């Protein structure tokens, strides 16, 4: 195996930027997405969904619809209940601070008795074509008695509010806490100054380019069920759907997630449609296909963020942070989606230390049910919320103390020699160098030259502002031990199978899933580098439970740090076996064989065997000690990390505001991220660009708005503004490499850093631009309308 500390970059190896293997397929229209798959004799499903946010289903009359042309079957919640099918489960179990378990109401795959959000599926209509299924759905006669709805968290928790679930008093799912309240109260009692902020983290709608789709298929002769689905997580879907919903044993249930056109978190979860088509296909003994429409995606894909937080920071006279107190309300929507409880808790509150040495921290999280689409992880999941809160609060604290924004950060940074650093909120950070990323980012962004640019902009009648965020996040999810302690119902390790073929080419099977991140390229680089085989002779297979032993899927920027480490572990086994074969062929002791650059060499001699020679010997074992070494070269490894990886960095944004219109124009964006060892710099830059673009979208444009009756007002791309090219500037990307100390690659995740670090940098810049107006905070998104109102009212919009 090549030495990881070796800075030499081999062609197609670690540190090189070969063009993406998968792109030829995608760019030539050869990608095979779920909707491209058609099974012989398939029928088409259409879901009739509730158009009211809350109501009692009094009756469903299917007679007229069933008589419509092409209709094959119509199923309602009653049919599902009769079939004994369970609800879609949640993957987390949290307890409130009084020790009581969170309220986990059943989430049936078709509504039973009540509808709870606009988009809740009431009936599945299956017909020969989608159009026929849609026409028949129109003919369903559904009588719903509308009930008062709650769409906003404060309204949902007000006395007398309508209950989304009778079991959840006050609409509270759980009331959780972390940290030491007494220590924080003591810190506040000695504070020189206290900075306070109220922050709304706006609700987002994911909108991956490929809408979701699912095909159920059933082979009556073998009793095997197959689900083709747009998932980031095929094994977890098999586990949840097989074990909890349909009770199909794993060996009879195959889940295939082929090419997936973006997920951004929204395709991690187990959705009701996946179970519905799998069940219906078996019942009808015919494949059933469902493809989501864009408008339908707005009201069925899990939404992201939607937190309301109040935070207070106690400071000493020298600007040192003494204590942090945080109170968050997190919207869960109408049902608990697969990972929803983990987002404001395990993924958010455990990061409240940020990059600072705050000695006492206490956080409370109330999770609230509302009559809205379920809310779950969206790129960054919990970490953007905490980063936004902290980095806005630190800017407010600087103002409160009369200190420079950079100086107050530097005063409180966790120093490099304090690593590993135990935070007061569960996590032990392994590595980081905040001063280095800050200094480099400030230099590239020319932070110190800003005031001259601001003065020049003022001459042109523009308000110019600069903002930064210095952040750290926990990804590479997850150490099973930490996940388990914080409520996960399953471990979060990863699996790799490395299969060396007789001629020395290699197929790697990984339990992670690629839906845009370029794994077929970067994982091949990893294998090429470690086994010394050509990059072109490595194939990466993912997304099929029938091919890959097991896996925990892709989210939380875990694929390289956890999935890649599993590959290294499996390759270690390959090399150990290869050494035994080489020792036999060269009549040497196993301990005398070393492996480097694709060659097994007898130490201190020029006797060597290539990797390909060892591979062929493993499969064609003439004169081979079969009693000692079994034939074949094919190894599997499970890797459970000891800790998360902790990427960190500094993002700086510069904006100009036109006071006449309130339009915020991005002028420059710089991101310097510390992600440990970089496998493919080009792909890493692309990941940062994508993430920052999402963060800019959240900061300036995107907002899912519900009215008080639970109707989604921003339910199409006409009303919900995604970032476009003219909203973005050229993003300067730099990387720093403080190696992760506990995985064999030294690598940290990169997939979410852009979306985590950027929103506070943008809003800090906007607030800075408005500094002459006495503005201390602007909630996201900073739309032209909002900024114009602030400027014209001359008040803090809050
Ligand atoms: N990489 C690298 N060197 C590093 C870290 C990563 O070369 N030090 C490479 C990896 O090998 C991989 C890519 O960068 O090719 C991202 O790796 P990683 O950080 O491990 O993240 P994941 O592959 O696990 O991807 C998940 C992450 C998340 S959580 C979301 S959400 C997300 C994202 O990445 N969704 C995406 N990036 C996305 N990119 C696209 N195009 N589409 C999505 O839906």
TrEMBL record:
InterPro entries on file: Ald_Oxase/Xan_DH_a/b, Ald_Oxase/Xan_DH_a/b_sf, Ald_Oxase/xanthine_DH-like, AldOxase/xan_DH_MoCoBD1, AldOxase/xan_DH_MoCoBD2, AldOxase/xan_DH_Mopterin-bd_sf
GO molecular function: iron ion binding; oxidoreductase activity
Residues making up the signal peptide according to the UniProt record: none
Chain residue ranges for the region called Disordered: 1-22
Superkingdom of the source species: Bacteria
Segments passing through the bilayer: none
Database matches in SMART domains: Ald_Xan_dh_C
Domain Aldehyde oxidase/xanthine dehydrogenase a/b hammerhead: from-to ranges: 28-148
Keywords tagged on the record: Molybdenum, Oxidoreductase
Protein name: Carbon-monoxide dehydrogenase large subunit
């Amino acid at each position: 195996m090549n030495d990881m500390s070796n800075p030499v970059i081999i062609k197609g190896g670690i540190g090189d930027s070969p063009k993406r293997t998968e792109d030829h397929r995608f760019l030539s229209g050869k990608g095979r997405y779920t909707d491209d798959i058609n099974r012989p004799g398939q029928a088409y499903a259409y879901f009739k969904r509730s158009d009211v946010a809350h109501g009692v289903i009094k009756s469903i009359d299917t007679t007229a619809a069933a008589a419509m042309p092409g209709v094959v079957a119509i199923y309602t919640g009653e049919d599902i209940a009769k079939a004994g099918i369970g609800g879609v489960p949640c993957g987390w179990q949290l307890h409130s601070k009084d020790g009581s378990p969170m309220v986990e109401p059943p989430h049936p795959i078709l509504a039973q008795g009540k509808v709870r959000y606009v988009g809740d599926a009431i009936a599945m209509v299956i017909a020969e074509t989608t159009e026929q299924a849609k026409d028949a759905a129109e003919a369903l006669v559904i009588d719903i008695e509308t009930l008062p709805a709650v769409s906003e968290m404060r309204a949902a928790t007000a006395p007398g509010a309508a209950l989304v679930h009778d079991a959840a008093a006050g609409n509270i799912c759980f009331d959780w806490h972390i940290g030491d309240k007494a220590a924080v109260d003591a810190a506040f009692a000695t504070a020189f100054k206290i900075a306070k902020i109220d922050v709304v983290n706006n609700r987002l709608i994911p909108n991956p380019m490929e809408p979701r789709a699912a095909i159920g298929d059933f082979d009556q002769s073998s009793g095997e069920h197959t689900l083709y689905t747009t998932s980031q997580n095929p094994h977890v879907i098999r586990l949840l759907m097989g074990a909890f919903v349909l009770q199909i044993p794993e060996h009879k249930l195959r889940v295939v997630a082929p090419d997936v056109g973006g997920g951004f978190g929204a395709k991690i979860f187990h959705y009701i449609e996946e179970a519905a088509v799998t069940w219906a296909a078996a019942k009808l003994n015919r494949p059933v296909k469902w493809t989501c429409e864009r408008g339908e995606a707005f009201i069925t894909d899990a939404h992201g963020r939607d937190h309301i937080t109040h935070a207070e920071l106690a400071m000493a006279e020298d600007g040192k942070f003494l204590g942090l107190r945080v109170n968050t309300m997190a919207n869960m929507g109408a049902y608990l989606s697969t990972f929803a409880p983990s987002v404001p808790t395990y993924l958010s509150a455990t990061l409240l230390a940020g990059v600072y040495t705050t000695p006492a921290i206490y956080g409370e999280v109330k999770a609230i049910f509302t009559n809205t689409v379920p809310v779950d992880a969206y790129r960054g999941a919990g970490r953007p919320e905490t980063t936004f809160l902290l980095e806005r609060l630190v800017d407010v604290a600087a103002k409160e103390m009369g200190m420079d924004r950079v100086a107050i950060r530097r005063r409180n940074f966790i120093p490099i020699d304090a690593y590993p650093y135990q935070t007061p909120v569960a996590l032990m950070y392994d590595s980081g160098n905040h001063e280095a990323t800050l200094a480099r980012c400030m230099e590239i962004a020319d932070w110190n030259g800003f005031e001259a640019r601001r003065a020049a902009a003022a001459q042109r009648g523009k308000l110019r502002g600069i903002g930064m965020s210095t952040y750290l996040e926990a990804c590479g999810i997850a150490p099973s031990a930490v996940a388990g302690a914080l409520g996960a119902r399953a471990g979060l390790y990863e699996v790799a199978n490395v299969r060396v073929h007789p001629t020395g080419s290699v197929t790697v099977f990984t339990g992670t899933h690629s839906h845009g991140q370029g794994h077929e390229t970067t994982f091949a680089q990893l294998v090429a580098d470690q086994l010394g085989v050509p990059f072109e002779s490595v194939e990466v297979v993912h997304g099929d439970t029938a091919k890959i032993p097991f896996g925990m899927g892709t989210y939380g920027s875990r694929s390289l740090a956890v999935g890649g480490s599993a590959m290294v572990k499996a390759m270690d086994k390959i090399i150990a076996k290869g050494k035994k074969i080489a020792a036999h062929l060269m009549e040497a002791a196993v301990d005398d064989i070393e492996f480097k650059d694709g060659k097994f060499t007898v130490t201190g001699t020029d006797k060597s065997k290539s990797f390909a020679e060892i591979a062929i010997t493993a499969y064609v074992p003439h004169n081979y000690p079969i009693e000692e070494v079994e034939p074949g070269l094919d190894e599997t490894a499970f890797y459970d990390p000891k800790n998360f990886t902790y990427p960190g960095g500094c993002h700086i944004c510069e904006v100009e505001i036109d006071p006449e219109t309130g339009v915020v124009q991005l002028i420059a964006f710089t991101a310097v991220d510390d992600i440990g060892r970089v496998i493919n710099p080009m792909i890493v830059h692309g990941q940062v660009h994508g993430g920052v673009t999402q963060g800019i979208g959240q900061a300036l444009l995107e907002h899912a708005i519900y009215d008080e009756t639970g109707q989604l007002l921003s339910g199409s791309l006409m009303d919900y503004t995604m970032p476009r090219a003219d909203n973005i500037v050229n993003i300067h990307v730099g990387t720093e490499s403080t190696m992760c100390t506990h995985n064999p690659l030294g690598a940290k995740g990169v997939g979410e850093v852009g979306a985590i670090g950027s929103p506070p940098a943008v809003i800090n810049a906007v607030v800075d631009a408005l500094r002459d107006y006495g503005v201390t905070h602007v909630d996201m998104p900073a739309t032209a309308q909002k900024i114009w109102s602030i400027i014209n009212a001359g008040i803090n919009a809050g």
